[in-house]
Amino acid sequence: MDSTSPIAGPPDTAVPGLARVGRASLQTRVYDELTRSLTHGAFAAGQVLRMQALADTMGVSIMPVREALGRLATERALEIMPNRSARVPLITEERLTDLARARCLVEGELVRMAVPRLTPEDWAVLRAQTAECETAFNRLDEEHASQTSQLNHQFHFTIYGAAGSDVLLPIVRSLWMQSGPCVRASAIIYGRNPSLTAVHHHWALIEALEARDAEAAVRALHADITQSFALIREDMRKAAGDG
């Protein structure tokens, strides 16, 4: 069988959070679909992903799935396990601290670079994205948790794309992919606490961008990034105390 040919028939085991992929450039399409799912928190920390189930869900053979998982493992987004499977990394305090530090450094620099390049049209887009995200937060459930993740991603990458850095942008995409389990964990926390929202940091960031105040923009960004990580850390410590 051609390693890139799709498998006929319906999948035996469907994996939530994934869509089927087409024939063209299967290795790339499988990688892109897994990256999208990881970035938006479709998989829980510690979740085991079996190659056959992934292949069946996406309608492809094992080979492109194996290659995509290997690539994701080198990017620290997954861990290769025995028996044709991979695992989403566990969330630890050390990993939270490391990810938060890296994201603040890289994304902060992208914000500084974007400040003089953003236009009034960009600011209008950012305001519309934030308003839509705020609406989704106000009715947070499983469906809208995914929507808030996608809107949050669009908001940030509207800014980062304006920075014009071909070097830093792939790095921040990798960091967001590694942060996927944290996105999922924070969505659960936000869902349990309706009074919590990260959107106010977005409004502060927009105001700083419109004022061309790079340092204020970076401060708002750091507050936005660290809030979710702090909530997860606090939740983990409470859970450990209850145990």
Automatic annotation (TrEMBL):
The keyword Transcription regulation applies. Keywords: DNA-binding, Transcription, Transcription regulation. Residues 24-91 form the HTH gntR-type domain. Pfam families: FCD, GntR. The keyword Transcription regulation applies. Transmembrane segments: none annotated. This is GntR family transcriptional regulator. It comes from Thioclava kandeliae.
